[in-house]
Amino acid sequence: MPSSNHDQAQRLAQFPDAMLAWYDNEKRSLPWRENPTPYRVWISEIMLQQTRVEAVIGYYERFLSALPDIHALAQAPQEQLMKLWEGLGYYTRARNLQKAAQVMDQQYAGQFPSTYDEIRALPGIGDYTAGAIASIAFSLKHPAVDGNVLRVMTRLTADGGDISKPATKQRISSLLTGLLPDRVGDFNQSLMELGATVCIPNGAPACLICPVREYCLGFSQGSPEDYPVKPKKKARTVEEHTVFLLDAGGRLALSKRPERGLLAGMWELPNVPGCLSQEAAEQWVVTQGFSHAQVCRLRSCRHIFTHVEWHMSVYAAQVSQEAGSFFWAGRQALHDSVSLPSAFRPALAQWEPRNQS
Ligand code: SF4
User: Fold this and answer.
1) Looking at the predicted structure, is the pLDDT value of residue 356 above 70?
2) Does residue 280 sit within a domain?
3) Residue 325 to residues 254, 270, 288: CA-CA distances in angstroms?
4) Which of 202, 226, 250 is the last residue of a domain?
């Protein structure tokens, strides 16, 4: 059992200073750390959920130059927003960003609210993101407990609680609340940074170069990797789909996904459940209103989402005219303005337009 938060807080009294000294020397130079306005911090924190820092940097810079402030984001056409987000995945994040920007545009005159509770009430902002914005952009004394911070703190305190349980997160959160220094934004970022670069998730933590090793119970007990304790992962569901590249003179058929569920409201390549044989695929094309279609099988693809894995059979069909209830897009439109989720990209990469348009 972990010792009480009171004991831990006493034991860790000098820990924030050690973290800040390390952070001042070792922090990575990242675009959102320069000029950390609430808007810039917010966009970076939302992008960094589920996505690696290296992958985010390019997206972040493009997003900020296209939509430099809350008002621009609130007014942005959906297609532009989705295009800027294309490849980052978890598109609900982008939709919630815009919803929150619209709330701020209408209720806060296009400014970020400056209290934790108001920030936390915005669409798509949970405890962690609210804590990060409040502390980094407004110097409000709130902890920001994400996966990195949970890992560092459970190792540091040898807390064997299951980190998926609210009680564990609550315990770490209240311990941190009692430790927050005046430089709260830097302290929160130092914990995230340590978790990302030293007390890493996969493989052994780099305890020998860790600036807070002397405070770490996981290290002194010889078993830092026992923490954090996680619930057993459920196996992903496998779904079979058959995906079609329907080409009419160099333009490709797209359809919209339903407004709810996985990839809600996104464009997709036409597809049906199951793994269709060549004959069944040819029949499907005919039922869509196309005659004289040449159908050929291409390389199968896979895409892994958090809880589900798609196994996709892919067919290309040259059709004689644009028909059916599809939206038709040429290569240029697919590149410039239409946002197609990554799941369909390997299939799309096999497309050879009959006549470029
Ligand atoms: Fe993590 Fe090791 Fe540092 Fe403890 S000593 S906080 S386990 S890197």
Assistant:
1) no
2) yes
3) 9, 11, 9
4) 226
For the residues 301-322, what does the mean pLDDT come to?
91
pLDDT in tens, 159-204: 999 999 999 999 999 999 999 999 999 999 999 999 999 999 988 9
Overall number of domains in the chain: 2
| Residues making up the chain, counted from first to last | 357
Identify whether 45 is a catalytic site residue.
yes
Q: Answer yes or no: do 22 and 84 share one domain.
A: yes
Q: Which atom of ligand 1 is nearest to the CA of 212?
A: 3
255: in domain: yes
Same domain (yes/no): 188, 306: no
State how far the Cα of 188 lies from the Cα of 242, in Å rounded to an integer.
46
The active-site residue, picked from 34, 45, 282, 352, is 45
- Of 203, 226, 249, which residue is a domain's last? 226
Percent of the chain predicted with pLDDT > 70: 98
pLDDT band with cut points at 50, 70 and 90 for residue 121: very high
Q: How far is the CA of 209 from the centre of ligand 1 (A)?
A: 9
Domain shared by 285 and 246, yes or no? yes
**pTM above the 0.90 mark?**
no
Query: Do 72 and 201 lie in a common domain?
Result: yes
CA distances from 292 to 77, 201, 265 (A): 38, 54, 31
Mark whether 216 and 243 lie in a shared domain. Answer: no
Give the separation between CA 70 and CA 110, rounded to whole angstroms.
Answer: 6
**Closest atom of ligand 1 relative to the 207 alpha carbon:** 2
Domain that holds residue 320: 237-348
With a 6 A CB cut-off, is 211 part of the ligand 1 pocket? no
What average pLDDT does the segment 327-353 reach?
Answer: 91
Over 90: is that where the pLDDT of 153 sits?
yes
Cis omega (within 30 of 0) for bond into 166: no
Evaluate: CB of 275 within 6 angstroms of ligand 1.
no
